[in-house]
Amino acid sequence: MRRINRAHFVPQAYQSEAYNDNPLPIGYNATISAPHMHAMCLEALKDNLRPGSKALDVGSGSGYLVACMAAMINPDGDAKSGYVYGVEHIPELVQFSQKNMSSCDQQLLNCSSILKSEEHLR
Fold first, then answer.
1. pLDDT digits (tens, 9 = 90+) for 65-96
2. Residue 122's pLDDT band (boundaries 50, 70, 90)?
3. How far, in whole angstroms, is CA 54 from its chain's centroid?
4. Distance between alpha carbon 65 and the CA centroid of its chain, in Å?
5. Which candidate, 37, 38, 28, places its Cα nearest to that of 61?
6. Closest residue by Cα to residue 35 from 75, 74, 68
7. How far is it, in rounded angstroms, from Cα 23 to Cα 4?
8. Active-site residues: which are they?
9. How far apart are CA 105 and CA 90, in angstroms?
10. What is the CB neighbour count within 10 angstroms for residue 58?
11. pLDDT tens digits, residue range 43-54?
12. CA distances from 53 to 14, 15, 21, 122 (A)
C-alpha cells in the first residue's frame, strides 16, 4: 500500500482527506474503502498475491485495490509474472479507475486493467 498513492484514487473534492482512515465517496453511491479495510484484505490475500499469480477484483470502484494487488503480484512491474483484473459495472467508475491507474506507477499498467463488466464478461 505504501507504493500506491491513495490520493490518486480519491476525487479532487476529497484530496485533503485521502489519508484519513475512513471511506470516502467516489460518486454513484460508491466509496473507496478505508485504508484499514484495504490493508485487512491484502493481508488476508498475501499468500495468494505472489509473483506469477492472477487476481480479480469485482466492483473495483476507484481502482485502488487493483493497483495494490498489482504491486504485490508484480513487484518489478513484469507483466509476464502475473496480472490483476478489476471489473466494474458503472461505466463512469470504469473511466475514473482507468484514469486513476494511469496516474500510478506506469509499470502497474503493464500488469493490471479495469474492465467494464457488460463488455468483457458475457
1. 999 998 888 777 655 678 888 899 999 999 99
2. very low
3. 14
4. 3
5. 28
6. 68
7. 17
8. 33
9. 24
10. 11
11. 999 999 988 889
12. 33, 32, 29, 23
What is the C-alpha to C-alpha distance for residues 92 and 116, in angstroms, rounded to an integer? Answer: 10
Contact between residue 41 and residue 68 where contact means Cβ atoms under 8 Å apart: no
Q: Give the cell for residue 37.
A: 479495510
pTM: predicted TM-score of the whole model, two decimal places:
0.88
Q: CB of 95 within 8 A of CB of 67?
A: no
Which grid coordinates belong to 39?
A: 490493508
- Hey, what's the cell of 90? 458503472
Percent of the chain residues past pLDDT 70, beyond the cut: 80
User: Tell me, what amino acid is at 95?
Assistant: Q
Task: Write down the pLDDT at residue 104.
Answer: 77
- Sole residue written with cell 461505466: 91
